[in-house]
Design a protein that fits this description.
This protein is α/β, with parallel strands linked by helices. Helix content is 38%, strand content 22%. Helix 7 crosses helix 11.
């Protein structure tokens, strides 16, 4: 059974508060190394900012995302973007590569996603992605858990995220039929120019929306107050404790 996050994706809000997500996607795009003429699937394309860079290499790209507003923004960039859940991919043997940046950790169960990616790829096709890794936003999660516990709610039961270790995810990839060529945990402290409150609005609706509407802003401020001593520097800049998992895996080539 697919577990669909309740987060409401707004392309405008994303562009204002989360523009760092595609901006910091250069290393995984470099790992993808797209070539002219390749057929590539961008899984969880967001508003298409990074997808444009793949298209610019001469590859043919189909982009999918679960958020209709994000897909509309990607289409406005001229991208072939479609509304589709990562757990319900409908492609079969079409792609030289599947690419994903900052999206896989929103998709559960991973086994269903990986089965769909495997089906979508041609024999010998590669899967290149970056997602949240083990200990990603650990401080933020701990603060949310403390604030919601005061209200009798276990925050972890609301979490839409899956942040695996490299070893755990390598095993999932191998069980799904992939050979893992490269996989690593990459700590990446990430400045939040719009502030932590805006980050919570953009990414933490699954945690805050179960609260009464008049209590959400109060809880949000309590989370920020708890985290200010450790995530806000002396200039006032918030720096989130991001940890990424980056990998390249490949399917077996077709028999000769």
């Amino acid at each position: 059974m697919a577990e669909i996050a309740r987060q409401r994706w707004s392309a405008e809000r994303y562009a204002e508060t989360a523009h760092f997500v595609p901006a910091l996607g250069a290393p995984v795009l470099e790992m993808l190394a797209p070539s002219p003429g390749e057929h590539i699937l961008d899984l969880g394309c967001g508003d298409g900012v990074l997808t444009e860079k793949i298209v610019a290499t001469g590859a043919t790209v189909i982009a999918v995302d679960a958020g209709p507003d994000m897909v509309a923004a990607a289409r406005a960039r001229g991208i072939d973007a479609r509304v589709m859940d990562g757990q319900k991919l409908t492609f079969s043997g079409e792609f030289d590569a599947v690419f994903s940046n900052a999206a896989l950790h929103w998709m559960r169960p991973q086994e269903t996603v990986l089965d769909g990616v495997r089906r979508a790829l041609k024999p010998g096709g590669r899967f290149v992605a970056e997602m949240g890794g083990h200990n990603n936003t650990a401080a933020i999660l701990t603060a949310m858990r403390a604030v919601l516990a005061r209200r009798g709610i276990e925050a972890l039961s609301l979490s839409p995220w899956y942040f695996p270790s490299a070893a755990a995810y390598q095993k999932k990839l191998e069980v799904a039929g992939f050979t893992v060529e490269e996989i690593a945990i990459v700590p990446r402290p990430t400045p939040l120019a719009a502030g932590l409150g805006a980050w919570l609005d953009a990414f933490a609706e699954d945690f805050l929306n179960p609260l009464p509407s008049d209590d959400r802003a109060i809880a949000r401020q309590e989370i920020c107050d708890l985290l200010q001593p450790i995530l806000r520097d002396e200039t006032g800049l918030w720096i989130a404790d991001y940890v990424r998992l980056r990998f390249r895996a490949r399917l077996p080539a077709a028999p000769k």
